[in-house]
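Reply to dn_fold:

You asked what the input looked like. This is it:
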Amino acid sequence: MPRQSRLDAPGALHHVMGRGIERTYIFRIDRDREDFLNRLAGLCAGGDLIVYAWCLLSNHFHLLVRTARQPISRSMKKLLTGYVVNFNLRHKRTGHLFQNRYKSIICEEDPYLLELTRYIHLNPLRAGMVSDLEELNNYQWAGHSVIMGRLERKWQDIDTVLGHFGRGRNAVEKYEQFVREGLSQGRRPELVGGGLIRSLGGWSQVLSLKRRDIKVASDERILGRDKFVQRLISEAEEKVKETLSL
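and this is what came back:
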């Protein structure tokens, strides 16, 4: 069965996740992590992506990005294909590194940009890679330390996130408090599972099934309120019709 194309839209906000095959470590050494981030920085410099939040763990990664010039699928292909080639050369291995395709959830900006920024940046703490928020503030493999002003990564857009909290140092303090308030939330499956889903039955069928509380299997997910979800579904259906009419 052919793969379904990913859901995308110009300027869409995506929560992207990728995991190592059979829980393989996709980042073994710091050189791996820097290689991945350098490639991500290149996509930002080329105008392909805007990055708001990110986190690198041993066997998976999280990104919160906005697409720009090209579809998310093309940007991720550039990022992951080159990374895997270099990773295999560095570690004298062959074969696949990532588990299936990466997972991408298209998200409504309000309220999910801030919610996902917090969720993604708390991953090292939940995973036990840092012991507390102060250590997270300085953790170099997540975007939280950049927003806090402890590290500099010029390719990361921190102004959009901090702009929701005010200006200057006061905004940073309010952002830190916002993150602190999320410490008790634990894992939030609703932020990584998405909302209405594409299936072989088509977007309209998915909407009908979801309203009747019937679960559906899928590749792509949408995280947002009803109007946002239905707008994306309508746009996706129009694209399918245009393709079929060619």
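Residues 118 and 182 are 7 Å apart (CA to CA).
Hope that clears it up.
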